[in-house]
């Protein structure tokens, strides 16, 4: 059984300049991780961003893609070397932490619940601020703890 979030889904100190660069990068990683093809994932991200920005606060963005061509639910974390200027957030902070969520359109209720619970956990301001200080794959993985099996 695969897991929604593993250490292989964490990418740190990435040098990406724009929101579009990030979405393309995550889509490419999704393909490498055999979650879905980069074109499908990228288009699903773009479609979601048209509806409303997925920028949150304290430098966090949570783009998500839902598509029948996504093979399994997954979360990909990207930490940026430098914050982006072009991702709109609730508090006008620059995005430097991306938590991308990918869900098959026929995903089980459990997949959606796990991802929803995870997103809700980041409502806690102290948790968001602590995430900013983590700089190793192990620390990010242990902190986020999205380990429920499918």
Summarize the structure.
It contains 5 helices and 5 strands.
What does this molecule look like?
The protein is an alpha/beta fold. The protein has one domain: Mannitol-specific EII, Chain A, CATH 3.40.930.10. The chain has 5 helices and 5 strands; from the N terminus they run E-H-H-E-E-E-E-H-H-H. Strands 1, 2, 3, 4 and 5 form a 5-stranded mixed sheet that branches. This is PTS sugar transporter subunit IIA. InterPro entries: PTrfase/Anion_transptr, PTS_EIIA_type-2_dom, PTS_SugarTrans_NitroReg. It comes from Ligilactobacillus faecis.
Task: Furnish the topology, listing elements before pairings.
Elements: E1 10-14, H1 19-32, H2 38-51, E2 60-61, E3 64-67, E4 74-84, E5 95-104, H3 109-121, H4 125-133, H5 137-144
Parallel strand pairs: 1-4, 2-5, 3-5
Antiparallel strand pairs: 4-5
Q: Please name the CATH topology.
A: Mannitol-specific EII, Chain A
Q: Which overall shape is indicated by the principal axes computed on the Cα atoms?
A: globular
Q: Stretches where pLDDT falls below 50 for ≥5 residues?
A: none
Q: SSE string, helix = H, strand = E?
A: EHHEEEEHHH
Report the CATH superfamily. Mannitol-specific EII, Chain A
Task: Give descriptors for this structure.
five-stranded mixed beta sheet, alpha/beta, Mannitol-specific EII, Chain A, 150 residues, 5 strands, 5 helices
